[in-house]
Amino acid sequence: MAAGAARCFYAFRPTDRPHCQLTASITYGTTALCSACNLQRSTLGKGLPGKPLPDNEPDPLGLLADAHQRYTASREELNAAVTRARQHDTTWTAIADELGITRQAAQQRFSQRH
Questions:
Q1: What is the pTM of this model?
Q2: For residues 1 and 63, is the Cβ–Cβ distance under 8 A?
Q3: Cα separations (Å) of 72 from 7, 48, 67, 103?
Q4: Residue 45: pLDDT band with limits 50, 70, 90
């Protein structure tokens, strides 16, 4: 993503806004929208004055890089949370219930780390 360019609020929601241009062109408070999503907004940002942003080209590879970085960070955070839960005597059954998987799946996925 270009330096100083902001992501559109809908950049990571392709199902909701398939024509999103990824890079924001206007902000309403802390919510940034591209021009396509701005045309489709209903109540988002109503009552707030829009602040135009500089023109930037869409950056799909930057979006992919951001998503991968967030995925990696969240995976590390999940592993750390399971480690902490186990250090505090949380059962594999309780962990599995929280994650929506079986006890065996939780144990197989995370037990190498413990």
A1: 0.64
A2: yes
A3: 19, 35, 9, 23
A4: low
Burial of 38 (0-12, 13-18, 19+ CB in 10 A): buried
CA 40 to chain centre: 21
Q: How far apart are CA 62 and CA 12, in angstroms?
A: 12
Is residue 3 predicted with pLDDT exceeding 60? no
For 66-84, the three-class secondary structure string (H helix, E strand, C coil) is HHHHHHHHHHHHHHHHHHH
